[in-house]
Specification:
alpha/beta; 8 strands; single chain; 117 residues; 2 helices
């Protein structure tokens, strides 16, 4: 089984390159008015619509803190704050905003997690 989360987009032409060029996602499928991206085991799509879905958070998980720092350097102009520890969830993370204002989180777990299949 697998799944895709779709978001309505007012500016797919600007939003898709944000995720591919700056976060390392790859285009998995192009459709008439939708682009489906893949980042590791996460698939998400943006479909051209009259208004954008901006609720929720797209969280990108890196292997370690260094990965968070690398993506922070790439997204510093869109980051809300520098990376920090979050002891409540035992993670290291930061938040940024995509071109349409969606929340993007980049994080690394500071504890062991089960391998992704």
């Amino acid at each position: 089984m697998s799944g895709i989360v779709f978001f309505a987009s007012e500016s797919r032409a600007e939003t898709v390159p944000f995720y591919t060029d700056r976060l390392g996602a790859e285009v998995w499928l192009e459709q008439t008015d939708c682009t489906v991206l893949q980042y590791d085991n996460m698939r998400f799509g943006f479909c051209e619509r009259e208004s954008a879905d901006t609720d929720g958070i797209l969280t990108f998980v890196t292997a370690d803190r260094d990965g968070v720092d690398v993506l922070y350097d790439e997204l510093a102009d869109r980051a809300r704050d520098p990376p920090e520890e979050n002891p409540k969830y035992d993670i290291y993370h930061f938040f940024a905003d995509d071109p349409e204002g969606r929340a993007v989180e980049v994080q690394a777990f500071d504890h062991e997690t089960e391998a992704v299949r």
